[in-house]
Write a structure and sequence with these properties.
Helix content: 40-55%
Bound molecules: iron/sulfur cluster
Strand content: 5-15%
Radius of gyration: 18 Å
Number of strands: 6
Strand order of the largest sheet: 1-6
Structural class: mainly alpha
Largest sheet: 2 strands, antiparallel
Shape: globular
Number of helices: 9
Number of domains: 1
């Protein structure tokens, strides 16, 4: 499980940099907002979904999550939980979400000159333009997508193989479930994936 520990360490570094950037600029998601998840096509690697898969396998929940993934037809992330009244929603596995979800809205990409350019959320741009303007003033200090991608690829080259998030989760559960069964020689939890 050393690989999972190293991935989670990168997630912790991302969270620290995002928090520092938020404190520096005042840019934040509005309370309770989770509208980016259903609006985006979220891609990540099966490797990045290993911490989530590990948690679900330990809980003995993996089979039911695989079933939920199988039933999804519109590509919406399986972890997205819609609020029953206002149809807004939030992440159901926030602590173990992949790097793209941690960085989205508060990170930069590199332009052709190698400078960091803030890539933020269109809702923040529309509803909080002054915060976004201040964040752009400090965009050279923003966490950088490519830096963390390189870090994850350095841990395991498979981090470069991106899939839709639900497919990535399915693969992570299946691969890790098999490894854990082989390692322990027994079923994991009552509903473990095989
Ligand atoms: S893992 Fe969580 S934050 Fe990322 S797309 Fe899914 S619901 Fe949204």
């Amino acid at each position: 499980m050393q690989l999972i520990t190293r991935i989670v360490e990168v997630y912790s570094q991302i969270d620290q940099q995002v928090t520092t950037f938020q404190l520096r600029t005042g840019l934040r998601c509005p309370a309770g907002c989770g509208r980016c998840c259903p609006e985006a096509e979220v891609y990540t690697s099966p490797m990045e979904m290993l911490p989530a898969a590990h948690e679900l396998l330990l809980r003995g929940d993996s089979q039911s999550w695989l079933e939920r993934v199988r039933k999804i037809k519109d590509g919406l992330c399986v972890f997205y939980q819609r609020h029953p009244i206002d149809q807004d929603g939030h992440c159901g596995l926030y602590a173990l979400r992949p790097s793209v979800c941690r960085l989205f809205g508060f990170a930069s990409v590199r332009n052709r000159l190698g400078q960091r350019v803030l890539s933020t959320c269109k809702l923040l741009k529309k509803n909080h333009p002054s915060d976004v303007a201040k964040a752009i003033e400090h965009q050279q200090e923003a966490p950088c997508f490519s830096q963390f991608t390189a870090q994850l690829i350095g841990i395991d080259p498979s981090a470069s193989r991106l899939e839709p998030i639900n497919i990535a989760l399915r693969e992570a559960i299946q691969t890790l479930g098999l490894q854990m069964q082989l390692a322990h020689g027994e079923k994991l939890g009552s509903n473990s994936a095989a």
